[in-house]
Design brief:
Number of strands of chain C: 4
CATH architecture of the largest domain in chain C: Orthogonal Bundle
Radius of gyration of chain A: 37 Å
Structural class of chain A: alpha+beta
Oligomer: heterotrimer
Number of helices of chain A: 8
Shape of chain A: extended
Helix content of chain A: 25-40%
Chains: A alpha+beta, B mainly alpha, C mainly alpha
CATH class of one domain in chain A: Mainly Beta
Strand content of chain A: 5-15%
CATH superfamily of one domain in chain A: Rieske [2Fe-2S] iron-sulphur domain
Distance between the termini of chain C: 110 Å
Helix content of chain C: 40-55%
Strand content of chain C: under 5%
Number of domains of chain C: 2
Strand order of the largest sheet of chain C: 1-2
CATH architecture of one domain in chain A: 3-layer Sandwich
Number of strands of chain A: 14
Largest sheet of chain A: 5 strands, antiparallel
CATH superfamily of the largest domain in chain C: Cytochrome c-like domain
Structural class of chain C: mainly alpha
Strand order of the largest sheet of chain A: 4-5-6-7-12
């Protein structure tokens, strides 16, 4: 290394302040010099192995004898009994073996010499010569046509391997819309009961869903079930809240989206999609429990803290003939976390 | 050693019995040559060398307990009605994955124990890898010739994170589903191709019905196979390079001093496997880990307060919480910096800097020698300080990932905490760096003092004019040698900006940067005393009448280890 | 009833803001709160006694007639209590949240200042001011005899409406600006019901029209079932989830493992004696 500027000194290169005194004299263990002590240790270790055997038997007994619902210290007695016996047996075997190694096996330290990892120059030269011979004999350098067409063919194999993955999933679709549409009732989640404005007090929060997730009258099943229901819910879940109308400052065009202070917002955080329903009725703030994005529901769902960027979208509300709360349209703003095509999709929605 | 003092193997019982089988195997495999080199291979003894072993044995426990779980776990998102023993969820619709996890927990005897052992071992696997990595970093064990093994280790850690996260997602309870929802948001945030990746990975819109079967494949086949291969390579390289050791009397860069593989290390390591497994089982018997039944089945319109990933993802999670809400639109695309930068960038930066560090350090120091002796952290102040700064940054992210729990448990304001962490992420590591470096240098000074002025014996002397002083005694030679057994600081030449002919050197600017970094790297470190210093010191300490250890019971004071000789 | 109402109305007529509301409130009160005839008879006395208590302990913040006190910057010093109902009083006073000891982001649960009798009197007084939710009937609080089906249904309501703030086992959670959703551990069925019904402090209202009294009973049954069940797997982390798990891992798990490693590598006691026949 001709360009090396620093000169590094290992411990042995320059005069050392203290000379290496060499390995210290070996000191014997008590068990080496006292045969009685050694026999005592031997008995201790075999006692551990004996106990381990008993614990293994205890495990088998507990497996059949202890019921899961029986409790011990407020825990499942079965889980505790199985874990304690198995763990105890394993631990005793381990401790016994190590104790054997520490107390009774020879503990004379041995010295082994290291050798540089680097191979000898001759070996290296020989390897380089072999590689060279291989290249020469294959003619890979002299016959570029073969080499290049082979490389091309292998490269082309990337195509099938990528194409095969194409059916992992469909191309993206439907991210901009949800199942909400004009006239769909907003119903209470879990029970599926429709909501009248008079049911909603100031300060009330209702975790709601579109009526389509619940069986229509006279039917047993809803349109959606299984993973389709989950996928639809992941975008369509909403919360309905009521504030005093004078507290709300709607944006232009959103003045009539509520009913006497009853507003409906998407429950899906615009950050990474956690369902948000931590609504503080006095401050009107909605907090996401996952990453603490906070939205002001009295002020059009604006972000007032945290990593979210887009306001939580609002669903325009109306009342149907029977006096129940309905949606007046799908969400005018895209719900759920942002994705690359969001800006374009939003433009399309706005254009409609 | 005196192997020839033992009874000849041919004459022992074992020798007579084993000769046949050993011969049979060697006739077919011819491994005696390799075995001869390795059966009595020497390993040095130090507790910190066993940290990686915890990870290794935890991995074995993971394999064993994982196989048990696969007998019953059904990686399917198909909807079933739960009809198991756990009353509060009876009759609910849930995925087969969750229902079978509940069955393992409540209806398979020992199932809950095995689930807890599996989860505990997963935690310990990753935690032990991190602790082991910190040991390797702070002692400089990653240096030439072990850089490749360091890279393998970084790969193992990264795979361990992914493997752990996949496992966390499989039960399909409310918590793991919320984790997947986050991953979905993270994938969507990848610029330009995010939506495509999301639909391909989830097989359609989130959550789809394929993600759990796919994660299951990755969790029980793909990643374990990679882990297994990398662990094998890691161990082979360890054996091939021979373990590093602490410097000391007789322990040099050219040898390795310790106990032979057979029988001592075979017993200690084998015994440690039983200890790791047994301790994990005891933990699983007494400390509840991830009670999936408490969370309920996943439902995208439900969430629980305190939704967190497992602790190893806490750093990433924290950065996502700390990030301001930045998003922009250009080229017609939406760019979600608020998710992408912390989500992908946080762990990306962590693993990239871990992987590059040995090469950066070598470029800065131009130290091309082989290193088999460990360095005490204090003797590489800049490296140690950088490591502590990195740990601090990781710790801030980690704490931020649990900011809601910290807020409720300590009665703090979650917004205020977030702001403290936002600034702290940048400021605390700098403070940690400065403090650590000072502490290291201070400790180096103390070491020099112990060599040159001896140690404090606890014996007070009064001088004729009435002053009091504490008597110092020289360290035993072995102790002195151990303290000085380290590299002397290199001679630092200024940057060569022109070559021998006065022509501007080609890599001019890069070289200047390197030299600047190099000077910073070595700045402030205390070099070990020279032979002259020690010679003077010996004269100075000379009027002390001999070494305390020569005095036997007459010496009243403390030993060099601080133990009082006489009470 | 009629004579009771008239008798009650007459001497207090000048005090009450809403005369029409009085009849409703009094009717609700007589139906819900007292269990027997003597209690009914004493209700007028209760209202008066409640008013006396109110003037001493509550009026400084909530105003002499419970109309609330508004500060100069237009925020509430103490909100108006007209129409909050007996349930709100029973919850706030019964859990010790009111009277507040000091100004804080939110009123914490503490040992109640008023005994049951006084709480009932205060509730009677506030209920007499305007119609509001009454103290829930016992039949909706008897969660012990809920069926398994009701409990799991209650769990669905709980996870949909409550866990986001209160956590999946009711351990509580963080809210903005130092506020928090308190733990549900050790909270009585009545107080849980009243909290849902009245929405104390920042908690939203979950009114009876949407979450019916039967649903509320199911929610309470689920909470109690989850809190009463054993920690099957051993020591829990207080229901705090993965953060608590992580603390266990680092303190006990890795701590213990490193302890074993140190023991394995430690050198035992050495003897000064030498082995017979050794070469040294």
């Amino acid at each position: 290394m001709s360009d090396e500027i620093e000169r590094h000194h290992g411990p042995s290169e320059v005069a050392e302040p203290i000379a290496d005194p060499g390995l210290p004299v070996h000191q014997y263990r008590v068990t080496d010099v006292d045969e009685a002590q050694a026999r005592r240790t031997e008995r201790q270790i075999s006692l551990m192995f004996g106990l381990a055997t008993l614990l293994a038997i205890g495990f088998t007994v507990a497996y059949f004898a202890v019921d899961f619902e029986t409790t011990f210290l407020g825990w499942s007695a079965q889980n505790f009994a199985l874990g304690a016996t198995l763990g105890g047996a394993l631990l005793l075997i381990g401790v016994g073996i190590i104790q054997w190694a520490k107390k009774l096996m020879s503990d004379h330290e041995m010295v082994e010499m290291r050798h540089p990892v680097r191979s000898s120059d001759e070996d290296r030269a020989a390897v380089m010569a072999d590689i060279n011979a291989g290249i020469e004999e294959s003619g890979i350098g002299r016959r570029p046509l073969i080499r290049n067409s082979l490389l091309g063919a292998i490269g082309a194999l990337a195509l099938p391997s990528i194409v095969l993955l194409r059916d992992l999933g469909p191309t993206p679709h439907g991210q901009a819309t949800t199942v909400w549409k004009r006239g769909m009732r907003v119903v209470n989640d879990v029970s599926g009961t429709p909501i009248r404005p008079s049911d909603v007090e100031v300060g009330q929060l209702i975790n709601a869903e579109p009526a389509v997730f619940f069986p229509a009258e006279g039917e047993d099943h809803s349109e959606f079930h299984g993973h389709e229901l989950l996928a639809a819910k992941a975008k369509a879940a909403v919360i309905v809240v009521r504030m005093r109308p004078e507290d709300i400052t709607p944006e232009k065009g959103k003045e009539n989206w509520g009913i006497d202070g009853i507003l409906c917002y998407s429950k899906i955080c615009t950050h990474v999609g956690c369902p948000i329903s931590l609504w503080e009725q006095q401050t009107h703030h909605l907090l996401c429990p996952c990453h603490q994005s906070t939205f002001d529901l009295a002020d059009n769902g604006k972000v007032i803290f945290g990593p979210a960027y887009r306001p939580v979208p609002q669903l325009p509300l109306g009342i149907d003939d029977e006096g129940f709360i309905i949606a007046m349209s799908d969400f005018p703003d895209i719900v759920a976390p942002s994705y690359p095509e969001l800006a374009r999709d939003q433009k399309k929605l706005d254009g409609e | 050693m005196a192997t020839d003092t033992y009874t000849k193997v041919e004459d022992t019982k074992v020798g007579k019995k084993a000769a046949g089988p050993v011969g049979w195997v060697d006739d077919r495999l011819g491994l005696a040559g390799v075995a001869r080199k390795n059966l009595r291979k020497v390993f040095p003894d130090h507790w910190s060398f066993m940290l990686g072993e915890i990870a290794l044995w935890s991995f074995v426990v993971l394999l064993l307990s994982g196989v048990f779980l696969t007998f019953w776990f059904q990686p399917s998102m198909a909807e079933v009605v739960y009809d198991g023993s756990y009353e509060p969820l009876k009759g609910l619709e849930m995925s087969q994955a969750y229902a079978s996890t509940l069955d393992i927990s409540f209806d398979i005897r020992g199932g809950l124990l095995m689930r807890q052992i599996h989860h505990w071992a997963a935690h310990l696997f990753i935690a032990a890898m991190i602790v082991h990595m910190l040991r390797v970093f702070f002692t400089g064990a990653y240096r030439k010739p072990r850089e490749i093994n360091w890279l393998i280790g970084v790969g193992l850690l990264a795979l361990g994170f992914i493997e752990g996260f996949a496992g966390y997602s499989l039960p399909d309870d409310l918590l793991s589903g919320t984790g997947l929802r986050f991953v979905d948001g993270l994938i969507r945030s990848i610029p330009i191709v995010g939506s495509y990746l999301e639909f391909f990975i989830f097989g359609g819109e989130f959550p789809g019905e394929l993600i759990i079967p796919r994660l299951y494949m990755a969790h029980i086949l793909l990643i374990p196979a990679l882990l297994l291969g990398l662990i094998a390579a890691h161990m082979l390289l360890l054996v091939y390079h021979k373990h590093t050791q602490w410097p000391g009397p007789g322990r040099t860069n050219e040898n390795v001093v310790g106990f032979p593989m057979l029988p001592v290390y075979a017993a200690k390591a084998g015994g440690f496997f039983f200890v790791v497994f047994g301790f994990t089982a005891l933990l699983s018997a007494t400390i509840q880990m991830n009670p999936v039944w408490a969370y309920g089945p996943y439902n995208p319109s439900e969430v629980t307060a305190g939704s967190q990933p497992d602790w190893y993802m806490g750093f990433s999670e924290g950065l996502v919480r700390l990030m301001p809400g930045w998003e922009s639109t250009f080229f017609g695309y939406t760019w979600s910096w608020n998710v992408f930068i912390p989500g992908v960038g946080g762990l990306g930066l962590l693993f990239t800097s871990l992987a590059l560090w040995p090469f950066i350090e070598r470029w800065i120091t131009k130290d091309n020698r082989e290193h088999h002796l460990l360095v005490r952290p204090r003797n590489a102040p800049t490296r140690t300080a950088l490591g502590v700064a990195g740990m601090t940054a990781f710790g801030v992210g980690w704490a931020a990932g649990g900011n809601d729990i910290i807020a409720t448990q300590f009665g703090l304001d979650i917004y205020a905490l977030t702001w403290v962490f936002r600034f702290g992420f940048f400021i605390f590591p700098v403070i940690a760096f400065l403090i650590t470096k000072r502490i290291c240098i201070g400790l180096q000074h103390a070491d020099s003092d112990r060599i040159l002025h001896g140690y404090e014996t606890g014996v007070l002397e009064r001088s004729p004019d009435g002053g009091y002083s504490e008597r110092h005694a020289p360290l035993p030679v072995a102790g002195q040698y151990t303290l000085t057994a380290r590299d002397r600081a290199p001679e630092l030449a200024p940057a060569q900006t022109v070559d021998a002919n006065g022509v501007e050197a080609p890599h001019n600017r890069r070289e200047r940067v390197r030299v600047w970094l190099r000077d910073k790297y070595y700045a402030g470190a205390v070099d070990k005393p020279t032979a002259d210093d020690v010679h003077h010191a010996e004269e100075h300490l000379g009027h002390f009448e001999g070494h305390p250890s020569d005095h036997g019971d007459d010496f009243r004071g403390v030993s060099d280890a601080g133990v009082p000789k006489v009470h | 009833m009629r004579t009771l109402s008239t008798r009650r109305r007459h001497p207090l007529a000048g005090l009450f803001v809403l005369l029409g509301a009085l009849a409703v409130a009094a009717a609700l009160y007589t139906v819900f709160a007292p269990k027997n005839a003597t209690a009914q008879e004493s209700s007028t006395a209760d209202v008066e006694a409640g008013r006396d208590l109110f003037l001493i302990g509550c009026a400084s913040c909530h105003g002499e007639n419970a109309e609330g006190i508004v500060t100069s910057d237009d925020s509430n010093y103490g909100p108006s209590l007209i129409g909050v109902g007996a349930a709100a009083v029973d919850f706030q006073v019964g859990t010790g949240r009111m009277p507040m000891a000091q100004s804080a982001p939110q009123a914490p649960k503490k040992a109640p200042e008023y005994d049951e009798e006084e709480t009932r009197q205060l509730a009677a007084y506030i209920a007499s001011l305007g119609p509001g939710p009454a103290i829930p009937e016992d039949e909706f609080l008897e969660y012990e005899d809920a069926t398994a089906e009701e409990i799991s249904e209650g769990g669905e309501f709980f996870r949909t409406n409550c866990t986001a703030c209160h956590n999946s086992v009711g351990a509580g959670g963080a809210l903005p600006d130092g506020r928090y959703a308190p733990t549900l551990e050790g909270v009585t069925a009545k107080h849980i019901y009243e909290a849902m019904q009245t929405g104390p402090q920042q908690m939203p209202v979950f009114g009876d029209d949407v979450i019916t009294p039967e649903d509320k009973r199911a929610v309470i049954a689920y909470i109690k079932a989850v809190q009463d069940q054993p920690n099957y797997g051993g020591l829990g982390g207080g229901g705090l989830g993965p953060v608590a798990d992580g603390v266990w891992v680092w303190l006990v798990g890795i701590g213990g493992m490193v302890g074993f490693a140190i023991w394995i590598a430690a050198n035992g006691t050495r003897s000064k004696k030498k082995v017979k026949g050794a070469e040294q």
